[in-house]
Amino acid sequence: MALKKVKGNFERMFDKNLTDLVRGIRNNKDNEAKYIAQCMEEIKVELRQDNIGVKANAVAKLTYLQMLGYDISWAIFNIIEVMSSNKFTFKRIGYLAASQSFHADSELLMLTTNMIRKDLNAQNQYEAGLALSGLSCFISHDLARDLANDIMTLMSSTKPYLRMKAVLMMYKVFLRYPEALRPAFPKLKEKLEDPDPGVQSAAVNVVCELARKNPKNYLSLAPVFFKLMTTSTNNWMLIKIIKLFGALTPLEPRLGKKLIEPLTNLIHSTSAMSLLYECINTVIAVLISISSGMPGHTASVQLCVQKLRILIEDSDQNLKYLGLLAMSRILKSHPKSVHAHKDLVLACLDDKDESIRLRALGLLYGMVSKKNLMEIVKKLMAHMERAEGTLYRDELLTRMIEICAQNNYQHVVDFEWYVTVLAELTEMETSSKHGCMIASQLTEVGARVADVRAFAARECSAMCARAAATPPGPASREVLYAAAYVLSEYSTEESVMRESISSVLGCARTGGGTMRARAVCVHAAIKLIAKLLLLYEQRGERDSAVDVIQEALSNLKPLLCSEDMEVQERAHNATALLTLVLKRIDPTADLHETVDTLVEHDSNGMTNDVELNGETISFSNGLLEEFASLFEGELKPVAPKAQKKVPMPADLDLSQWLSHERWSSDSSSSEDECSAVFTVPQPDARPVTHLTQDELEMLREARRQEQANNPHYLKDDSPRSYQQDDIPIAEIALEVPLQVQSKRSDKYLVLRESSKKTKKEKRPTKKRKSKQKHTTESDSDDGETALTRRPEVEAGGELPEGAALSDEDTQPTGSDPHRALDLDLDVPLRDEELLVTRVKQYPAPGEKVTLEKAKKEKRTEKKKRSKPKTEDLIPITDVNNAKDKTDKHKTKTKKDKDSKKKKSKKDKHGTKLGYEEALGISTPSKEVI
């Protein structure tokens, strides 16, 4: 035996250890995979040996390979063998490998239950700590259920190291086995007042993590945490406690009144920025939850804002970001306190860090009001001109539109100014995505605000004129779609309509990626012409009507051969319709040859003028009135969820076919052939042919070639189809950015400021005390002059009959492990909720108990007892309190002493039985009850 041991140690001298493995991988960079495959084969050979040291060395190498991404799940059983080693160095290697490779669904975890129980109850505290650390990485539901009592026992250990690890381990037990929370909560509550600061901090962390999802269950611990907050000097534990109070305050507003003073003292005294930030966040939560009438809350808000200003002005980018983040939270409840620091937020827009600039933009979203909206937008537009980076410029434009459009345009007083801002943003030329956003805003303002429609039509006319003169950019192409619609739908001025016809039709002739807007421009021109002709007919101006039609026909002529099929079709329809109208108005008009061949109209001897009492009322015999009636009526906005709320008809069956099969014999009956007068007789039946896969592919390829060569086939209008033709022009990088000297939107701000000055001059010098209640800033802005009074904005949109304005969709709730921990911890425990443990007390390592002696005792005990018990289930509370009860009742009566003797005999019997059952286990465990 000794010779074999010496031989094994001699062979181990030549084994490749972990250092050799790492060195070999570094030296074989060219063929690393081949070298690792060779090492894997060597490791498999080492794992088949009996020497536990060789196995531990192999498992250590497998742990390193697992960190490189290799799968070692095939070695789980060998890892368990190393974990069960009696030598601590080998055991540590096994637990490290298990923590990396095991998971809760591993099949062989059931083999580790007794082994981990033995390690948890080991005399060496580091072995128990090692078991707790490894178990936390791969604990499953079964392990949590079986080992909950052992871990709870370690919470009462005399060693602070084990108590701290056991408290932290109980959090993982609660997640896997929520039924252990109620029995373990009293002991967890005791650890909050543990004399060791490490155990105390661990208990605070566990409770804070549990309360992060279910804070109402831990409201009863508020007095304990309040005492810790006022007495502890550990900043990290204070941060946890303060965050917990921030979650508890909304549930109990009375708690917030007591927290204001200690939190304010911490804000004044602490120098730790992390603790200061958490104190400010909790003060914000407290001030939101308590009533606004609490005395002194304004001073607390001002203190928080002043401290946050210090954070924002700090050179550290992280502190600056956190300051802006906390300032946005104060903004929701106390906007006036933040409005005073508007200059600081605007200065953050020039920061080099893009995340800080974006956070400052988000803060400006809540700082705007009716008084400062124009000023903030002006600064944002000036900042956008000199900003670098396409992504940031696009974000600036998005936030600018969101600031103006929030809450149904509640802060926009002058919509002419807003339409001008949209037009100027279009000229800046951003991406097409933001062009769609500007287009939707332009359409929405025209549909909702009736007072600004005439001005919006004029601005859209100018946009169309610019687009017809110069090729539009990506954003202008999308805005042109909305501009043509707004111009044709809401224009009422004769001069604007007359000048816009040629520019709108000129936009329809532009090429490139404006296909979507070109067809709309042709339709918009028809609407403008219809309005103009009706106006000229009412005034009897025949020559003006003829001039408009002839000008439109000449501009439509190039569109008759357009490459866009929709533009070509609309141009043909418009030409035919206008020719028909021109024939009715002036039959002697000189039509173009191509136009003259389209439509031939006969007046049938009808006169062109209709006289009533000597006055001419119409020169088209009512045709222009019918022409204009095609576009009568107002198109109202539609609610976003209107289509989803349309009820399905009762007689609609979506699973039923709407038509019969084309080639079925039923559809080719004699009755159908007789009734079909203008249709060609169908053949009797279509022959059924079975094609192979190669023949199908050949037919598909032939069809694709035919479609590609067919000029009348509508191709896919995807972005790839015109990507080659629409090559963006590279911008020249200028050292000095281009600056616009003045903008059209600035005059509205100047006009508003001048109106404020005149209003102040007219105000009497004597001040009167206001007896009214405090109103919000938005309400105070309503008392403006008539010049800046906000027009009415239509809210909502059209919905189906019986549908509500807006129904929020219910969000699907995912699988949350904290949901099972939402338990009422104040209700007393029931008997079935008590955790039970298997009493298996094993002899000390020094005692020698043979198998024959155990069998003999078992036979004698069977004779004495009629029902043998192999396992005694004892509630955990009784086990923990058994020692205390015996100490208190030492001086009892003789009856009590006899009962204690009987109980000790039973315990002794249980000890012997438990050890005998463990004889068949390779790694028997010892429980400390």
UniProtKB/TrEMBL annotation:
Assembly and binders: Adaptor protein complex 3 (AP-3) is a heterotetramer.
InterPro entries: AP3_complex_dsu, AP3D_dom_metazoa, ARM-like, ARM-type_fold, Clathrin/coatomer_adapt-like_N
Region (Disordered): 663-688, 747-929
Name used for this protein in its record: AP-3 complex subunit delta
Compositional bias of kind Basic and acidic residues: 747-756, 816-835, 849-860
Pfam families hit by this protein: Adaptin_N, AP3D1
Assigned keywords, A-Z: Golgi apparatus, Membrane, Protein transport, Repeat, Transport
Predominant localisation class: membrane
Biased composition (Basic residues): 757-773, 888-911
Record-level GO BP terms: anterograde synaptic vesicle transport; Golgi to vacuole transport; neurotransmitter receptor transport, postsynaptic endosome to lysosome; protein targeting to vacuole; synaptic vesicle budding from endosome; synaptic vesicle membrane organization
Family affiliation: Belongs to the adaptor complexes large subunit family.
Domain AP-3 complex subunit delta as annotated: residue spans: 691-826
Gene Ontology cellular component terms for the protein in this record: AP-3 adaptor complex; axon cytoplasm; endosome membrane; Golgi apparatus; presynaptic endosome; terminal bouton
Compartment(s): Endomembrane system; Golgi apparatus
